[in-house]
Amino acid sequence: MSGPRRERRKADPEFLDPERLYVITGDLDDSERAALDLVTMVVAQAEPSPTFQPEQAAILRLCQAPLSVAEISAYLSLPFSVVTSLLSDLLATELIESRAPIVRATLPDRSLLEAVMHGLQKL
Amino acid sequence: MDFRSSDTITGPRTEDVLPTTATAAVKVVIVGGFGVGKTTMVGSVSEIRPLTTEETMTQAGVGVDDNAGVETKTATTVAMDFGRISLSEELILYLFGTPGQERFWFLWNGLFEGALGAVVLIDTRRLEVSFDVIGRLEERGVPFVVAVNTFPDAPHHPVEALRRALDLPDEVPMIDCDARMRASSRDVLMTLMRYLHSLAVPLA
Predict the structure, then answer these.
(1) Contacts of B131 in chain A (CB under 8 A)
(2) Which segments cross the bilayer (chain B) (predicted)?
(3) Domains of chain A
(4) Is the distance from CB of A92 to CB of A32 less than 8 angstroms?
């Protein structure tokens, strides 16, 4: 096969520093700046009431069952950054609860991967 | 106020509502050039109709986006399609199809950092568009497999020739797939999980 060829790259230490990964997903002490991932799961802790902002009421209505931040953004047709800002306010007032995703930084965990494979096999 | 009244927001269809036990989420990123079949692959394995999340890039793009010489601040909307697979009552897998251009990746907090791994979807007719993507994943230390989407009119190259052209290490799995087929896309994800499993250290 002729044509263009790629050259392999080395891992850049800037992206491999585990401390950096911790800083991104950690910082749980400061609820104002809770790090919300696309797949952070959100569950409402309250029913929407007419006193809430429409966006907040919509989020509470959507999240009566668990929903990811990405899904909330899609259903509300709002940019990811806008949704994370709205969710941060709701988190600070404990109107919603969030569950951080299982990220690769907390791996290696073979049992998790086995659970994923088991689930995929049922598809 | 251009936000729709919350009464008109359409949430998940009844059959798409997750059980309250769904508390653990993992994600996989499918990355590739324009038109390579990312959304097709997401759609073929997703249990929900693929959804789209958007982000707007404004001044954050300065110095990153290629708009040198452009005086006015421009806003670019970047969309990302995603799907979902409930693996069990607790564990949910999200699949994100993202454009190959790395300048968009920063828009989504920790998109790659938190991902279990990535699938690089390639089209043998335009192999070179995947070079930069693969290089970026190598730099970031994100484990990935390469899936060759078999388009009917695409030239068929032996896997070893493609591996040389892509300069992939022997251990990186390559697999042919038909992104339109659920079983084929599922096999790609299984290949990624087996590869990650081989890289993982057993728990002490």
Answers:
(1) 4, 6
(2) none
(3) 17-121 (1.10.10.10)
(4) yes
